[in-house]
User: Fold these one by one.
Assistant:
Number 1:
Amino acid sequence: MHTWCADEGITFECRAPYTEEQNGGAERSRRTLMDRSRAMQLEASLPPSLGPEAFLAAGYALNRTPNEQLGWKTPYEIAYGKPPSLTHMHIYGCKTYTLDKRIKRGDKLAPRASIGHLVGYNSTNIY
């Protein structure tokens, strides 16, 4: 780790144990993600066991949110040089319908999908 940091021109500094105050930026980022993920999970009425998924989804959304410190650009835009596509973004916890191809087509009124909830984003077309 020290070698990689030195090669990249990064100054590696450890903080003293049990003094989170020395790591203010990272602690504030963690708190922002925790607050957003908690709000998302409560609004979606999902079980607490999906907390890690809410945390990841909050980070995904935060990286696609404009920031004043970045000149109203998104972190994604700064990293990749182009604005992110938001067409695949849906409300966290919204109902999803998954086609079940094993269901026979004999009954026209029978359901052909399983109902679920959106709990995260893996890609631009995978939830």
Number 2:
Amino acid sequence: MSDYEAIEKTVFDYFDGYKAKDRTRLERAFAVDIANLMGYWKNPKGEKELFSRPMRQVIDTWTDPGHTPLELGEGRMLSVNIFSSDGATVVFDFGGRFLDAFQLVKMEGRWRIVNKFFVDH
């Protein structure tokens, strides 16, 4: 499998894992112990607000039985930049709802997301 294909698989483990509330796929996509999520979203007042949390907490929320995943369209890779043998960036359309920018590292031969920054469409 090429690095591009492995990165694409990692990103879709995140996307499909989110939709299915599948902790195994989400934890396969992220370097959970060090990964972070940050981004701008609209708060209940409709104002843009910067949001940041450790990925472990985010995955706990996403996989909670009471959490309802967002209704999403198709996920699309918009750009991939493999800038070294163990570093890459990806811009991803999160089902028409968010744009995600990922930083990935190759750890023990596998690509993992270490940072996710998102903006509300």
Number 3:
Amino acid sequence: MSLEPLAAALLRARTVLTRRPDMGLHQDSAATVRWQGGTRNVVSHDNGTRLETDMSTELGGSGDRVTPGWLFRAGVASCAVTTIAMRAAMEGVELTTLEARVESRSDTRGLLGMATTDGTPIEAAPRAMRLHVRIAASGATEAALRGLVDRACGCSPVPRALTGQTALDVAVELA
């Protein structure tokens, strides 16, 4: 699949942002979630896209929908793949294979607000995450592909939010 249309679009965007850097900073589309009861939620995008989430049966859910944690991992992987494809297009790399898998290891006790026997709170966030990228490109060396992935992940917004530790401000509004 040719990345030429993508490369052309990215060149246009870079040209505009070079002339008008102020246009680069923008408000992202909000993710709106409405509780449906129990642990089931409906996530909505401004464009009308909807997705249901739920927890496993062990944690009181139906187990028939993706969990918010899985959606988070999917976001990391999807953002990484998108940014790698964009970087490949900008650099003229002809990709033949590109996929990513994000794995994590978590302690459910943190989700439940539990503590260790000495009273130390257990972290709810994943303890470890791994982004595994499978990539191939016509005529590219292993070193070139590793460099491409490193450069792309260095400016991939969702993976960078993890490594850059983006602050989360929680605002509460009473209904």
